[in-house]
Amino acid sequence: MKKMTLRFFLLLWSLSTLSCDYGLMHETPAIKPHEEPWLITKDPGVPFSGGEALYKASTPEELVSSVALTDPDNITRGKKYYGIYCVHCHGENHDGRGTVGQSFSPLPGDLRSPGVQSSPAGVLFKEISYGIPGKRQPPLAATIDATRRWEIIAFVKSLGPRK
User: Fold this and answer.
1) Is the Cβ–Cβ distance between 120 and 61 less than 8 Å?
2) Each residue's pLDDT tens digit, 118-135
3) CA distances for 132 relative to 31, 35, 72, 84, 109, angstroms
4) The CATH number of domain 53-159 is 3.40.1080.10
5) Which of 71, 121, 140, 149 has minimal Cβ neighbours within 10 Å of its Cβ?
6) Among 108, 104, 75, CA closest to 90
C-alpha cells in the first residue's frame, strides 16, 4: 500500500511539473564549490593601519577631510547621499522635520543653525560617524563610507546658516 501511495504521489508530482513555466531546482545547472582555484590577493586583506579605528581614535581637531569641502562635485555628491541617508530625519529643508524626524522629541538638529554651520568639519564627521551622546543621531560609520560622510559634510556646510 505504501509503495502504491508513493508511486501515485510521484506520478502526480511529475505531471504537475510539466505545467511549470520556470526551471526546477533539479534541472538547473549546479555550481560546485572550489571548482576554480582560489584567488590570492597581492596585498593583505586586513589593514594594519588607517581605517575607521584611526578616525575614531582621533580628536575632531585632528581630522582632516579626505575631499575638498568646497568642490562643487563633492557638494553635488554630498547632496545625493544626504537624500539617501539623512533626509528622512533632517528633512528636505534641513530643519529636522523629515518624515521620520518629526516624530522625535526633541527634533533632529537644524543643519542650517548657526551651531551646526560654525562647527568644524571634524566635529560633524565624528557626530555623523559615532552618534551624539544623549541625542538621536545614530552612529553611521558602519553604514556610510568615510568619503561619503565627508561629501555629506561638504553639502551641509554649503547650505550656510538659515536667515
Assistant:
1) yes
2) 999 999 999 999 998 888
3) 47, 49, 28, 20, 11
4) no
5) 71
6) 108
